[in-house]
């Protein structure tokens, strides 16, 4: 069974709109930050990948908003990975702490460009080995 990576985060007041809730676009930032934290934990730094001409790009993002986050609230953003062909699907959730309320979920489809061509770099499979679910 694949592992799930969790990133503990806190809402910053400037991320809230005039109604006092987190602006919908900010959730995409939370999801992205969590994927980048996972990459770094697995030894993949975006700067190094870019220098090697390996560019992970978001092909599709599907976000379902459930409950609002408000300023100063703590939450956990989690991610697990599914691999199909050359695509990586990052299944993500944002859960408010301490009431364990699901605030948003997403499936982010990512492909990698190597020298400008879509491919599945072996280094990603190795780095993410503990987090990839191959059985979906």
Automatic annotation (TrEMBL):
Record's keyword terms, sorted: Hydrolase
UniProt cross-references to Gene3D superfamilies, sorted A to Z: Hotdog Thioesterase (3.10.129.10)
Top-rank taxon, per record: Bacteria
Pfam family, one: 4HBT_2
GO molecular function: fatty acyl-CoA hydrolase activity
Family: Belongs to the 4-hydroxybenzoyl-CoA thioesterase family.
Name of the molecule in the record: Thioesterase domain-containing protein
Species per Swiss-Prot/TrEMBL record: uncultured Dysgonomonas sp
Origin organism lineage: Bacteria, Pseudomonadati, Bacteroidota, Bacteroidia, Bacteroidales
């Amino acid at each position: 069974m694949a592992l799930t990576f969790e990133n503990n985060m806190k809402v910053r007041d400037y991320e809230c709109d005039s109604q006092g809730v987190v602006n919908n676009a900010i959730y995409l930032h939370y999801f992205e930050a969590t994927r980048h934290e996972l990459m770094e934990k697995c030894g993949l730094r975006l700067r190094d990948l870019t220098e090697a001409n390996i560019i992970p790009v978001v092909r599709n993002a599907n976000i379902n908003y459930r409950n609002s986050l408000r300023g100063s609230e703590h939450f956990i953003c989690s991610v697990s990975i599914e691999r199909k062909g050359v695509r990586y699907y990052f299944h993500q959730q944002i859960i408010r702490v301490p009431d364990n309320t699901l605030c948003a979920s997403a499936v982010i489809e990512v492909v990698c460009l190597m020298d400008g061509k879509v491919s599945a770099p072996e280094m990603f499979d190795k780095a993410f080995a503990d987090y990839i679910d191959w059985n979906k």
